[in-house]
Amino acid sequence: MKIALLCPTRNRLKDVTRLIASLCDTGDSINYTLYLGIDSDDKDYDALPEKEWIRKVPSGGGTEFIGLGKIWNNMMKHVTEDILMMVGDDMTFETQGWDQEIIKEFEDIPPDKMKLVHCNDGMRGEGNPIPEAPPFAVAPFIHRRYYDVIGIYAREEWKHGYHDTWINDVYTIMDRKKYRHDIMIRHRHIYNPDSNALPDSTSHRLCAGYDSVPNSLAQYNDMYPMRAEEAKRLLCL
Length: 237
What we know:
This protein has a single domain (about 5-235), classed as Spore Coat Polysaccharide Biosynthesis Protein SpsA, Chain A. The chain is built from eight helices and eight strands, in the order βαββαββαββααβααα. The chain has helices at about 15-25, 70-75, 100-105, 145-150, 165-175, 200-210, 215-220, 225-235, and strands at about 5-10, 30-40, 55-60, 85, 90-95, 115-120, 140-145, 175-185. Strands 3-2-1-4-7-6-8-5 form an eight-stranded mixed beta sheet, sandwiched between helices. The mean pLDDT is about 90.
């Protein structure tokens, strides 16, 4: 059993290099493949050395931002691993042996393979800048059976936002989530008070991809029956 780390990225070679270094420092590449979703007009990553466990795959986008949902779904066409993770290029893996722990979690799985594991993002929960915020499934690990049954990995209604929220809520409905506060996968997000991250051309592009918040949230809430139906399908072997 192996892990697929699906990371859309644009103009962030420095961040991706930091992400790769954190993976090398904390895990064993025999256990995972890092998929980088590259836009057709982005030449930054041509200089990235080829490695057996790093795959550069087309995002399907270019100058026009097609949206993270479409990018993740395009990337999934190249993925063969059993465990899937949504990864941001602004993340770092900081717990030794995280990969072995995640694989153990998915070796202990119900017959329907419905299980979500999420980890400490360094922002929410005990010991983090926002301790009162409940842990949320940022960058969730799930079994690929979700993709095989539903037919897509991420929703495409929104260019930026609600992708991990959707998966979090479906697995909440199924009551199939497990939180590992002991595994730190730090999200160096511009909204994280500890990250010291500054907006860049990519973050501006992503924020421009947000629909107006009230309308997006209303649409998301109106789609609750679809999430409930997904949960029902996923629990039926």
